[in-house]
Amino acid sequence: MTVPDQNFVDPSNPQRQEQHDHHEQTRSAPSAPPQPPPAAQETAIQFPPPAGTYNIPLPPHDQQSIPNYPPQAPPEYAPPQAPPVYVPPQARPVYAPLQPGQYHYIRPGPALPVLPPANTEGWKTGLFECFDDPVSALMAFFFPCVPFGQIAEIVDNGHTSCSTSGLMYVLVTVCIGLPCILTCSYRAKLRNKFGLVESPGPDWLVHCFCECCAISQAYRELQLRGWDPSIGWEGNVARQIQQRMVPPRHQAMTA
Length: 255
Fold this sequence. Notes:
By secondary structure, the protein is mainly alpha-helical. The protein has a domain at 130-244. Helices cover 41% and strands 0% of the residues.
């Protein structure tokens, strides 16, 4: 059995012959490279864009979402600041030795603060020496507001009267029941006034357990230092002025 040739064309069939000739021409012609699809027409970009290029109307919902900012003022002009002035360093003074008869002047410096003297002086009367002045001891026991008011007037240099301090003592005693809160502060003022030591214990402890003895001790201490609490601040000041003005009694002239 023979296989028919695929290139054989029957000359009696003109349509077949025409198709064969067209196929042969297509095969013998050189194949052209594939052409790319037509590209989109390129447009030149202008910068800056012409006016009205971006004036594209927006949809209503987009126009409402854009806030309407007011126009801002241009920034204020700040003039340039002048450069700092250069100050050349000063030359150090040249030390010259002193000649005979010459002296250096030393400028006085600021005064140093004067510290208060420490409380180192002892008491002239003891805490339990109440029998040295029985009257003040009895007053401190039965009517402590009276001697306390007299002591407070002397310690405060007359700024607080005896009646005011005594009334404060009564109010603290009635309302709180602890007059030592008030009296211990005046014991500290008395010690600072005369530079006394804190003896035999802290002020609050002495007045808390020995209130009457502490008031009597402060009363006697003022008497021993030349102050009479019974006549008040003005009476003591007048007495001291009178003592300074009295001339000495015995004067003798020597040749």
